[in-house]
Design a protein that fits this description.
The chain is mainly α. It has one domain. It contains 7 helices and no strands. The relative contact order is 0.14.
């Protein structure tokens, strides 16, 4: 595994991200934008699933917020992968980074399961459970991600 990570760290793109004057900063800015789109659309949707804004219909809200969340996730995954190249051995040595990846994986699995198997017509308890789990997982991923920068 370590040899594979060393090969990854030696690629041209990894070298550019690591040593470019503005490369890492630009990618990090795009990563933050992706996270803002993702979390900024997930939280209102999860709060609606938890029962807030009862007079507001869930379907039109989801039709607007879900594509924004997906776009934010795609932007975050691509930019995050580029940031990872700057020091793959260092990142994988951090438990908090591994927890971040775990929380993201579980949050995406929760969302996919909900949208493909449950949907918005489910009962209130099912919607609250999905919304609560989603909110908890995404906030844990967000916190873990911020801790990566400081550890």
């Amino acid at each position: 595994m370590e040899a594979w990570l060393d090969v990854l760290a030696a690629t041209d793109i990894a070298q550019w991200v690591r040593f470019s004057r503005w490369g890492y900063a630009a990618i990090n800015t795009v990563h933050v934008l992706g996270i803002a789109l993702l979390i900024g659309s997930i939280i209102p949707l999860d709060l609606k699933l938890l029962g807030l804004w009862r007079r507001l219909a869930i379907t039109p809200l989801a039709e607007v917020l879900v594509p924004v969340a997906i776009a934010g996730l795609i932007i975050s995954v691509i930019s995050g992968s580029l940031l990872f190249l700057a020091g793959p051995n260092d990142y994988l040595a951090l438990n908090v980074f591994l927890f971040k990846i775990l929380f993201i994986t579980l949050a995406v699995a929760n969302a996919v399961n909900f949208h493909w198997r449950i949907d918005y017509s489910a009962g209130k308890n099912a919607l609250r459970l999905v919304g609560g789990v989603s909110l908890l997982l995404w906030l844990c991923a967000l916190i873990a991600g911020r801790l990566v920068a400081y550890i």
